[in-house]
Write a structure and sequence with these properties.
Number of helices: 6
Strand order of the largest sheet: 6-5-4-3-2-1-14
Order of helices and strands: EHEEHEEHEEEEEHEHEHEE
Bound molecules: zinc ion
CATH architecture: 4-Layer Sandwich
Radius of gyration: 18 Å
CATH topology: Metallo-beta-lactamase, Chain A
Strand content: 25-35%
Helix content: 10-25%
Length: 272
């Protein structure tokens, strides 16, 4: 699988839309890897994970062709991961999508948000909704399978992370989540991973409720290796950063590099 990390920020982006904090001022000055859009991923060119308000920008920035998208996997309904209004433009008169249909995978709130934004227009948008249930594997065709993992995030909806599997290789996209509960860790043992991208919203602030910070990303990596979930030489990437953490890209690298963990940036690519 070819993975493109399209965005690496938490909900408000980094620099945040209206923010004058030092981390945002510095990011505006330095640019480069310090500019972070809302988190989303391309898995080859048929599958996308999350579709937030920067999806159009991602199309322009990375030369993506969303007409080739077959599966849209939504982790949860928070606005940085799910901006259903843009699906409106699949409609006749806005886009010619031919006879291509798009399968939208998500929880009940994801479906409800789609309907609030677009009405019951699944057919005219050529969108087919499929409900996601934790641990119920999803056949995405072309040998790709996704497994939704129960996330420890917002309890008002069924938030999931996704394991993506192809040719016997597996990647976990692990945000938004806090520290997994024991059952999730145990069930993950059945899906040995080659690569992980893990939530690092809090940066140097050591929290693990709802999201993780740097120290808990390291703990999560160690826990995965200890349980045989992540290969000892597997790829571990920290992503989904908030400006409230304060550490700029090079600060994050200084912390993570000696620990063998990569720091995600917008436009990062790797093969699983
Ligand atoms: Zn988020
Ligand atoms: Zn800020
Ligand atoms: Zn969230």
């Amino acid at each position: 699988m070819e993975i493109l990390i399209c965005g690496t920020a938490a909900a408000e982006g980094w620099p945040a839309l209206f923010c004058i904090c030092e981390a945002c001022v510095r990011a505006r000055e330095l640019g480069g890897k310090n500019i972070r859009t809302r988190a989303a991923y391309m898995v080859d060119d048929r599958v996308r994970v999350d579709f937030g308000p920067d999806s159009y920008l991602h199309q322009l920035k990375y030369g993506l062709d969303y007409s080739r998208l077959e599966h849209l996997l939504i982790s949860h309904a928070h606005s940085d991961h799910w901006y259903p209004t843009d699906l409106h433009f699949r409609r006749k008169g806005y886009s010619d999508v031919g006879d291509r249909s798009l399968t939208l995978w998500g929880n009940a709130k994801v479906e409800r948000r789609f309907e609030e934004a677009n009405g019951d227009h699944f057919d005219s948008y050529r969108v087919v909704f499929r409900a996601v249930r934790p641990w119920q594997s999803m056949d995405l065709g072309d040998g790709v399978v996704a497994i939704p993992v129960q996330a420890a995030h917002d309890t008002s909806e069924e938030c999931v992370n996704y394991v993506l599997e192809k040719d016997g290789r597996r990647l976990l996209i692990g945000h938004d989540t806090g520290w997994y509960d024991e059952l999730t860790w145990r069930l993950l043992e059945d899906y040995p991973l080659d690569a992980v991208v893990m939530d690092c919203t809090y940066g140097p602030n050591d929290h693990s409720r709802g999201h993780l910070g740097c120290a808990s990303v390291v703990r999560a990596r160690d826990e995965m290796v200890r349980r045989g979930i992540l290969r000892a030489d597997g790829i571990m990437v920290a992503g989904h950063f908030s400006h409230n953490g304060g550490w700029l890209h090079e600060d994050l690298e200084r912390y993570f590099e000696p620990l063998g963990i990569l720091v995600a940036y917008d436009g990062m690519r790797f093969t699983v």
